[in-house]
Amino acid sequence: MRLVLRTLWIVCALIAMAPVQAMASTLDTLVIGRVGDAEAAMPTGLGLPIKVRTALFFNEIRSFNEQTGIFQATTDLRLTWKDPGMRYAAQPGSHGYREFRESVADAEIAKIWTPKIRYLNLLSEINSAERRLRVYPDG
Fold first, then answer.
1. Is 101 exposed, middle or buried (0-12, 13-18, 19+ CB in 10 A)?
2. Which of 92, 96, 107, 135 ranks highest by number of CB atoms within 10 Å?
3. Is the pTM of this model over 0.70?
C-alpha cells in the first residue's frame, strides 16, 4: 500500500498561526527534500514528483492567545508516500505492515529517503518527538 512515517510531536513550543492568505504557501512548503543527512536515493520508480500525503492532527491545544495568535499544542503529523524499493512479500497472518518504533524507527528512517519537514512560524524548538515508521508490502 504505502510507506507511512508517523511522527507524534509534543509541541510544548509556541507556534504562531499563519494568516489565512499565507496558509496555502505554508502547505506548499511544508514537505520538500529529505530529513537528516541520509544519502538515500529519492524513490523515482513511480515517476516525479513524488506524491507525499500529509495529515496534521491536533491532539491537544494547551494554550491559545487570541490577541497574538500564538498557541502551544501536541500534534500528530503523518506523511505517506510510495517507495517501490521498499516492497516486500506479504506474510500470511501478519497485521499487514512492518512497524518500527523509537530508536529502531530512527535507524530505519536514516537508511531511506524521507521528505524534509519544515514548520513555518515556529517560535521555539519542538520539545520531543516520537517517530514511527510503517512499511506496507507494496512499498
1. middle
2. 135
3. no
